[in-house]
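Support reply, case 0932

Customer input (verbatim):
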Amino acid sequence: MDSAALPLPHAATPADLRRVVAGWRAAGETVAFVPTMGALHDGHLRLVEQARMEARRVVTSVFVNPTQFAAHEDLDTYPRTLERDAALLAEAGCDLLYAPTASTMYPAGFATRIAMDGPALGLETDHRPHFFGGVSIVVAKLLNQVQADVALFGEKDYQQLRVIARLAADLDIPTRIVGVPTERDGHGLALSSRNAYLSEAELDIARRLNGRLAAAAACVRAGDPIDAVERDTAEALLSDGFGSVDYVAVREADSLAPVQLSAKAPLRILAAAWLGRTRLIDNMAV
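Our regenerated output:
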């Protein structure tokens, strides 16, 4: 589709984006930002809804970021539905769609990388070591380009949320980072663009993940040993029909550090598991 025909105002370059935002700023208006990779679902639209409560104006980006995909992952097949996404954003009250190209975000000669420790260590990094390097650079660029008062991220990607909060704090990015609770279907499955890959039989299995995490959280609250809860939950997921389990882990909720026995910090349980070619992640507070 010709981008000129999109049903809401849109920008494709940082200069065009900043021109619009500068006009809002001149009028004394606040700005919220929702970054996405498109293929929007109700979870994304919930972020836009929350953004409208946080600020007068809302910018949503749609950009499938190549730097966070490894060579064997689904960059080429990741769903790209810009026309549909734009229509949904217009209905949700988004004020501006920002849809840069890869060559705009990473022009010839681009040579900057960001290396993250802290909450980026372990979990996703153990299985996708490239991932947070790609996420960190694109989010840093987007936050710098939009210069919003607040940016909203879903808690489904909980480790990503903690990494981005750390990134913004460490780099003195003034945008406030807000996490929004995970949107789920009627069976408790966390909404994800990649759920479209699941067959009906796989969906039945996928919907058991949330319940297994809820049971595990209850066991941790009851005082069961954390390593036993992690092991038993992984085994239960395999018995449910998941092909493999990358991790089930209980971590300190803010830092994502391994739990210390004497610590009183809030906890989070996180999991990643495979069904066929689809990798599902989920988490919940303990």
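We compared this against your earlier run and they match. Two observations from our side: The radius of gyration is 19 Å. DSSP finds ten helices and nine strands in the chain. Please reopen the case if you see a mismatch on your end.
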